Amino acid sequence: MTEDIQENVVHGEENVFVQKFQEYLAEFVYGGIDGSVTTFAVVAGAVGAGLDSSVIIILGFANLFADGFAMSIGAYLSSKTDVDNYEKHKAIEYWEVENIPEKEREEIREVFREKGFTGKLLEEVVATITADKDRWVDVMMKEELGLIEETKSPFKIGLITFISFLILGFIPLLVYVLDMMIDIKGDLLIWSTSLTFLSFALIGYLKGVVNSKNRFASVATTVLMGAAAALVAYYVGDFLEGIMSK
Fold this sequence. Notes:
This protein has 9 helices and no strands. It is mostly helical. It folds into 2 domains: 27-79 and 154-244, no CATH class; 82-144, no CATH class.
């Protein structure tokens, strides 16, 4: 009996973790996309310019942490702005409900009249909604202002974005870091490209899950996007290296 209880607790904790991960999956996906693409572009551009592996690692890590931090701060501030904006308008609606209830009641009536409610049914709906201030304000926020409360933590949004950026953005650099330790044979850019495209495919699949789109199409577009960014960076680096070496 005790073992069953412990197993249920473990499964319950696992389910909570899965639910939380799914809740922030969009931030993980978009942080990962940006991290993979930008870091791989730095690597490809540096290789195109003929830079040494040590320089590629330095540039890659500088980009990884600087861009990752900037992106996470941007995600945090964007979410925090939405939360603050919602709370500001919510406070205004509460003030209006308490101080000018007839005007607010008429606004509720107008909202549901436009939805097709009329006569006695309309008045019953208005009476039901306005009988509870919290429900009243909630309806006004959604129906009048078109605002929906953000349930996700701005801090967690920024943190997940940063972690995803670092983890998936590190993949293009992994081969170069390992090469410094164990001397990998073969073309390092090819190895880096292969690993990075696998990460693109994973991100594309997760993006399809988040957007409820065709998984194959999402994988294909993400991989093509990454390939385009890499080609542009590589040939720009090659072009500039040619100019500078003259």
